[in-house]
Amino acid sequence: MKEQSTSKGFAILSLAGILAKLLSLLYVPLLQGIIGTGGYGIYQKTYEVFTFLYAVLNLGMQTAIAKYISELSAVENHRDAQRTFRLARTLLLLFGTGITLVLIASAKFIAQKSGNPDIFIGLITLAPAIALTSVLCAYRGYFQGRRLMGPLAVSQVVEQFMNVAVSLLFAFIFVKYGVEKGSAGGTVGTSLGAFIAIVYLIYIAAVERIDKQVINKDKDIKRIRTKTIIKKLVTYGFPIALSAGLQNFGALVDMFNVTARLSYAGFTKDQGNVLYGILGYYKTLLYVPLTIITALATAVMPAIVRALVAKDKKSMKESILFAIRISYDIAIPAAFGLAILSAEIYKVLFGKTTGYELMVYGSVVVIFMAIVQIQNTILQAVNKFYFVVGSLCVGIVLKIASNYILIGYRDINVKGAVVGGILCFFVPMVLNHRKMCKTLKFKFSLLKVASKPILSSLAMTAVIFVLKISVFGIMNTYLGEGRIVNSIILFIAIVCGGIVYLYTMISIGGITKAEIDSMSPKVSRLLPRFLKRRLR
Questions:
Q1: Cβ distance 1 to 142 under 8 Å?
Q2: Residues 6+ apart with CB under 8 A from 237
Q3: What is the dihedral of CA 223, 226, 227, 231, to 10 degrees?
Q4: How many Å separate Cα 82 from the centre of its chain?
Q5: What does the alpha-carbon distance between residue 270 and residue 42 come to, in Å, rounded to a whole number?
Q6: Neighbours of 487 (CB within 10 A)
Q7: Residues 118, 42: contact at Cβ < 8 Å?
Q8: Greatest mean pLDDT among 33-42, 92-101, 374-383, 507-516
Q9: Separation CA 529–CA 533 (nearest Å)
C-alpha cells in the first residue's frame, strides 16, 4: 500500500469527511423528529461530557502517535514505528477502559452536579465508546503517520454510517419510554460505529501486511528503548491532549454556564432545553465545513513533521502556505453561504427557521475556527505545544465571560453565544499567526491570503441574493414552502453559488490547474468546459 502525498491525502480525506458529515446532517433532523427539540437539547448536553473525555484521552494521543511515527518513518526506522503503535494501542485500551468504568460509576453525580439530571442514562450508554474510540485513535494515528489516508477515510465513513443507523434505531425504540431514554438511545451507535471501524482497520492492516512491508525496509538502525517511546508519546501527547481537553472543557463549562444563565434570565428547564437545542443546531452547522479542514490538518501534519526532521524549510513553507490557503478557500465561501442561505438550510434540515439568525450573524466563526485549527496543527508539528495551550486558554476565558454576561439577558439569550464564539477563535488566530511568523521565520498576511476567496465569495453571495429575491420567491409563491421545495431551492442555490465561486476564483488566479492536478487529474477533466478554459 503506497503512501499518499499531502494533496492527494487531503482530497481522499475531504471526500470521506463530506460523506460522513452528510450522514451526520441527515441524522440531526431525523433524530429531532424522533425525540423532539427538547430531547435533542438533552442529547447535546450528554455529548458535551463525552466529547470532553474523548478529547482529553484520544485527540492528543492520535496526533502524538501520528507525529512520532512520521518522525521515525522519515529516518526509515520502521520497526520502532510499529512498536510505537502497538505500545500506544495497549496504553490507550487500558486508560480508555478505566475512564469508561469511572464514567459509568460517576454518571449520576455528574448529571446532578451539572444541573441536568436527564443526561444520566445517556452518559451510561455513551461510556463504552470511550474505550472503543481510544483503540480506534491508536489505529488512525498509525495510518495517519504512515500517510495511508485511504483506509483512514473509509473507516470514518463506515463509523459514521453505523453510528447514524444504530443510533436512530435505538432512539426510536426507547423514546416510547420517555424523552431522556430516547436521547440516550440516540448515543448507542457511537460505540458500535467505533467497533466496526476498528475491525475494518485491523482487516486492512492484516490483508495488506503493512507491518511486514515497512519492517522489511529497515536498515541497520539502532533500536529505541520502550521507555524512550513512552516518554516521547507523553511529551507529544500531553500538551496536545491538554489543548484538546481545554477546548472541550471550555465547551463543557459553557454548557453549565449557558444552562445557569438561561435559568437566571427566567426560562424554565424545558424552555432552556429547547434553546440549548437551537444552539446545538447552530454548532452542528458550524462544524460541517470544518470536516474538510480536519481532513486538511490530518493530511498536512505528517508532511510538516517530515520536512522538519529533514530540515527542508522550502517544503515546510510550501506545506504551511498550502494549508492556510486551502483553509480560506473552503471556510470563506462556506461562511458566506451559511449566512445568505441560513433560513433555507434550517427549513430543509430542521423543518423550521427558528434560530436561523444565529447563523446569519455567527457564520463568520467558521473562518476563524478553520484557521485556528490549521495553525494549531502547524504549531504542534513544530513542537510549539504549550503556546497552543496558552492561546486556547485566552479564547476560552473570553468566550465564557462573554456568554455569562450576554446570555443572562432574556432578550439576547443564546444569541449571545455568537459573540462568545467570535472572541474564542479570533483572538487566538491573531496570537497564533504572530507566533508562527516568529518561529518559522517567514512572514505572510492572513488578510492578503484571504483576499481572493473573499472577492469570489462576494460574487457568489450576490448571485444567490438575486436568485432569492427573484426565482426562489416565485417558486415559493406557486409551489409553497414545504421541505421538498426548499430542498430544490437550496440545491439550485448551492450549485449556482459554487459555480460562480469557482469561476471567479479561477479567473483571478485563486485556483490553478497545477493545484487541482496535484490532488487528482480527474478533477480538472470533470470540470465544465467554460471552467477548463479559464484554468491556467
A1: no
A2: 60, 61, 63, 64, 65
A3: 90
A4: 27
A5: 10
A6: 14
A7: yes
A8: 92-101
A9: 6
Sequence ranges of the domains in the chain: 50-224, 255-444, 447-536
Round to whole Å and give the CA distance between 303 and 154.
Answer: 21
Q: Is the separation of the CB atoms in 89 and 140 below 8 Å?
A: no
Tell me which amino acid residue 351 is.
G
| Cell numbers found for residue 292 | 474538510
Dmax of the chain from CA atoms? 76
Q: Which residue has better confidence, 425 or 271?
A: 425
In angstroms, the CA 513 to CA 325 distance is 15
Dig out the grid coordinates for 169 from the structure.
434505531
Q: Which residues contact 508 (CB under 8 A, 6 or more apart)?
A: 452, 455, 456
- Distance from C-alpha of 420 to C-alpha of 399, rounded to nearest angstrom: 4
Q: Are 380 and 67 in contact, with CB atoms under 8 Å apart?
A: yes
| Residue 183 DSSP SS3 | helix
Residue carrying the nine cell digits 504512515: 146
Which distant-in-sequence residues (6+ apart) come within 8 Å of 84 by Cβ?
Answer: 65, 68, 69, 72, 229, 232, 233
Provide the grid cell at 61.
494521543
Determine how many CB atoms are found less than 10 A away from the CB of residue 26: 13
Residue 3 has a CB neighbour count (10 Å cut-off) of: 12
What are the cell numbers at 485?
421545495
Q: Please, what's the b/e burial string for 28-52 (b: 16 or more CB within 10 A of its CB; e: otherwise)?
A: bbbbbebbbbbbbbbbbbbbbbbbb
Q: Cell numbers for 431, please give them.
A: 496570537
Residue (of 235, 367, 376, 372) closest to 304 by Cα position: 376
pLDDT of residue 496: 92
Contacts 24+ apart (CB under 8 A), 434-438: 435/379, 435/384, 435/387, 435/391, 436/320, 436/375, 436/378, 436/379
Q: 277 — phi, psi (to 5°)?
A: -65, -40
By residue count, the chain amounts to 536
The C-alpha cell that represents 252 in the structure block: 463543557
Per-residue pLDDT, averaged over 306-320, amounts to 79
Exposed, middle or buried: residue 355 (CB in 10 Å: 0-12, 13-18, 19+)? Answer: buried
Q: Which amino acid does the sequence have at 334?
A: A
- Set of cell numbers at residue 207: 490483508
pLDDT at 526: 63
- The secondary structure of residue 33, as a DSSP letter, is H
Cβ pair 23, 162 in contact under 8 A: no
Distance CA 483, CA 489 (A): 10
Chain centroid to CA 265: 32
Contact yes or no for 359/339 (Cβ under 8 A) = yes
Written as one letter, the residue type at 343 is: A
99-148: per-residue pLDDT in tens? 999 989 988 888 887 677 888 888 899 899 999 999 999 999 888 888 78
pTM of the model: 0.74
Does 166 or 22 have the greater pLDDT score?
A: 166
Residue that has been written with the C-alpha cell 470532553 in this structure: 52
> What are the start-end ranges of the E strands in 349-440?
none
Residue with cell 482529553: 56
Q: Where are the alpha helices (DSSP H) in 175-225?
A: 179-185, 188-208, 210-215
